[in-house]
């Protein structure tokens, strides 16, 4: 029987230190903070620094400093993923013991060649090593996905469904280079932090079914999700640190907050401090989310 006992709202903002805070990230941070406050909840910050080759030294502290300048401060101590490797090992061991994880010997070239032979789009993993590696050395560990639609009701976009096996295939939970994969780390941390609500950019919408099946495999409740429209550059492309997105202007917090609020569909606010801006934005956000397809309802979690 599914437990539908309501839980206190716990949201989070989880930037990666591959660059400084940019306008797309600020919009997500503001929305997640406002949503937590609108539901009398707790707002957490997590630094997702599990990819050292891409992380920029000092970016984590710069992001936290920028957030503080905008009045966005974690309600609990900030969590760094580099401190969480033992927890990921434990989660992986549970998945292995339950038969959800297996070793894979395939390189990217192997996957591409197999996809071409089978006529399926790359990089969908075709399940080559599901029954063993035929003596080849294991390169990575993969999660065995169910062959069914995984559906959820996104608070912004409404109903979303994906057959993970057909869209992605069995996905990596520990990489060939020994680093932890994003999906396992984020799910493990959301469970450990008691996250009930995830508010983030729409670029992660199609990741959500993978995170749902992982959450279910670990025996935890699935959070509610809200995926926000992306902030785009002048070429209509998603802002990203990897694409060299311009960092937010920390010397103009009100201007940056106003721009983020407009992106989220809020009217112009006008305030003389970041704190006053956030106070004024809160009832406007509550009104904004009342018009969304899916509401946060007590006991429906």
Automatic annotation (TrEMBL):
Sequence motif 'HIGH' region, residues: 15-25
* 'KMSKS' region (motif): residue ranges: 238-242
- Which InterPro entries does the protein's record reference? Glu-Q_tRNA(Asp)_Synthase, Glu/Gln-tRNA-synth, Glu/Gln-tRNA-synth_Ib_cat-dom, GluQ/Sye, Rossmann-like_a/b/a_fold
Pfam families per UniProt: tRNA-synt_1c
Choose one Gene Ontology CC annotation of this protein and give it: cytosol
**Gene3D superfamilies, alphabetically?**
HUPs
Which residues are recorded as binding L-glutamate?
A: 12-16, 48, 182, 200
NCBIfam families this protein is in? Answer: PRK05710.1-2 (NF004313), PRK05710.1-3 (NF004314), queuosine_YadB (TIGR03838)
Identification of the protein by name: Glutamyl-Q tRNA(Asp) synthetase
The root-end lineage is: Bacteria, Pseudomonadati, Pseudomonadota, Betaproteobacteria, Burkholderiales
């Amino acid at each position: 029987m599914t437990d539908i006992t309501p839980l206190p709202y716990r949201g989070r903002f989880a930037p990666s230190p591959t660059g400084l805070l940019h306008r797309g990230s600020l919009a997500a941070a503001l929305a997640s903070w406002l949503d937590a406050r609108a539901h009398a909840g707790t707002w957490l910050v997590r630094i997702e620094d599990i990819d050292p080759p891409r992380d920029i030294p000092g970016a984590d502290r710069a992001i936290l400093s920028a957030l503080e300048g905008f009045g966005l401060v974690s309600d609990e101590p900030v969590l760094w993923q580099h401190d969480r490797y033992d927890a990921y090992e434990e989660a992986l061991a549970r998945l292995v013991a339950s038969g959800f994880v297996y070793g894979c010997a395939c390189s990217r070239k192997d996957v591409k060649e197999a996809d071409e032979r089978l006529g399926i789009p790359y990089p969908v993993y075709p399940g080559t090593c599901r029954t063993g590696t035929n003596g080849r050395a294991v390169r990575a560990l993969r999660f065995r996905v169910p062959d069914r639609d995984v559906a959820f009701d996104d608070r912004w976009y409404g109903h979303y469904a994906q057959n993970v096996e057909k869209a992605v295939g069995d996905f990596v939970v520990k990489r060939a280079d020994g680093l932890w994969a994003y999906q396992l780390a984020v799910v493990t941390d959301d469970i450990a932090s008691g996250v009930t609500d995830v508010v983030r950019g729409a670029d992660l919408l199609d990741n959500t079914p993978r995170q749902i099946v992982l959450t279910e495999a670990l025996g935890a409740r699935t959070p509610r999700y809200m995926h926000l429209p992306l902030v785009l550059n002048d070429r209509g492309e998603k802002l990203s640190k990897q694409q060299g997105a311009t960092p937010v202007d920390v010397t103009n917090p009100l201007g940056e907050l106003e721009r983020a609020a407009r992106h989220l569909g809020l009217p112009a606010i006008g305030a003389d401090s970041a704190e006053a801006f956030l106070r004024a934005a809160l009832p406007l956000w509550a009104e904004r989310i009342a018009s969304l397809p899916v509401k946060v309802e007590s006991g429906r979690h």
